[in-house]
Amino acid sequence: MIPSRRSFLAGAAALSAAVVTPETSWARRAARLGADWGLATADVETDVAPRPMRLVHGRAPADLSGDLFRNGPARFRRPGGAAAHWFDGDGLMRRFRIRDGDVELAARFAGTPKRRQEAAAGAMLMPGFGTLGDPRAIIESPDDANAANTSALPVGDAVWALWEGGSALAMDPETLATRGFVTHRRDLAAMPFLAHPRIEPDGRIWNLGVVHDRAVVWRLAADGTLEDAQLIDLPRASYIHDFTATDRHLLIVLQPWVRTRRVMPLVDGFDWVADEAAQVLVLDKADLSAQRLYELPAFGFFHLGDAWAEPDGTLRFDVCAHEDMTFAARGAREILNGVSIGAAPARLALAALRPDGRAELTYTDVVAEFPRSDPRRAGRPRRLTAHAALERPDRPLSSGLAVQDWVSGRSTLYDFGEGQISEEPVFIPRGDAEADAWLLVPSINLAERATELHLFEAADAAAGPVASWRADVALPAGFHGAWRAA
């Protein structure tokens, strides 16, 4: 049993009430979304019935068969009030189904209590990461405000829609119908379950659930069955969206963006503490009380790559490192208006934690977000990281795909061009070699106002897509996804 469940949830359940954006502001925002990359945060009004995507380039391999599940916010505005932050829109689960060279697209909103309340009221009521709540919101649990909008995790006979501050939401992988929140044990109901679980090659799932300066460390079997859940204290109340792991250790990176005030919305309680170092808390998977704390130069981040251990005991992980967290605090609010605040994009960097306690962070010149690698090598030595690329301060969304080789130091880049918004790549192993793999990348074609899907050879991403498909609908930018082979 985890002690003090009520006090642990207090931070997530302290959801304040305030009037949301008025109708005039909603209309003004909606009117500004027609230009350029504003399509990435446009509203989807209804579910998207299954429909074929048309092959517009190349030839699809007949032996690639599976489903790419992707999640992201897709409804931000209602006439009576709007969300104030990109991270607070309603989750839309997308499924790209590939069979015999053909692709079918379907999408369905997560059927959350949040969405049901807001549909009935005709307004976005619930508080969130950057949105204040409306007095009409009925909130008895963190899951009443759960947007289920950040990531997708195929588990057993379901696909889970993941959020930061509450339970995973189970959905049917065939119909995308909502089944309900996942409760692993009665005393664990509504416990936070982060959107970035770490999955071992055998399928075991590790995750965190974070509120303020405490975390639940989750360990699940490959089918989603609970194996263990332990409460730990953290050195400080950093914003944690992601963590990483080797085969033997969990690495929790504590950036100097620290929650100093328990106010709502959540983002307003964080301060960038410029004179603080970044910390890395290393936990032994076999004994969570066995811990080491490292320090690195200050950086902000959303996303980490899989970690690994060198033969000499050095632990390494890659990170998409920001100068600070201006984008989370301000940029992700303004992006809903189709506005860029000019924040510097993240750069790819490699951290090394030495057995003697030293730690270094080495930056590349590569602009990067959404790092992904070979799932068969999760927590083990590897050389490749695929990631979204070519984000600029005046356009805070990617338009490229890149693959970093950490052994050679070479970065291979493909530029989709100004007319595309490229999203997170997914690594699909094909042969035994790490580079013998597919990379599957969704994008938004701005000129065609259409969602596209592109298939690349991981060994030669610069050559461009092997095949590309186009839908007859444009979906807003998603955040994260996962592949399930058929």
Keywords, please?
10-stranded antiparallel sheet, 5-stranded antiparallel sheet, mainly beta, 35 strands, 4 helices, 41% strand, 486 residues, disordered N terminus
Please give a structural write-up.
The chain has 486 residues and is mainly beta. The protein has one domain (5-365). Helix content is 7%, strand content 41%. The protein has helices at 5-13, 23-31, 113-121, 326-334, and strands spanning 48-58, 66-75, 77-78, 81-82, 90-99, 102-109, 151-155, 158-162, 169-171, 178-181, 198-199, 205-211, 214-220, 226-233, 244-245, 249-254, 257-259, 270-272, 278-284, 287-296, 300-304, 308-309, 315-322, 347-353, 359-367, 369-372, 384-389, 400-405, 411-415, 420-422, 426-429, 437-445, 450-457, 467-470, 480-485. The strands form 8 sheets. Strands 1, 2, 5, 6, 30, 31, 32, 33, 34 and 35 form a 10-stranded antiparallel β-sheet that branches. Strands 21, 22, 23, 24 and 25 form a 5-stranded antiparallel β-sheet that branches. It has a 4-stranded antiparallel β-sheet with strand order 7-8-9-10, with no helix packed on it. β12 (205-211) and β13 form a beta hairpin. It is globular and about 55 Å long.
Domain count: the total is: 1
What are the low-pLDDT stretches, counting only 5+ consecutive residues below 50?
1-35
User: What is the general shape?
Assistant: globular
Structural class: mainly beta
Number of strands: 35
Helix content: under 10%
First and last CA, distance: 37 Å
Mean pLDDT: 93
Query: How can the largest sheet be summarized?
Result: 10 strands, antiparallel
Strand content: 35-45%
The gyration radius over C-alpha positions equals 21 Å
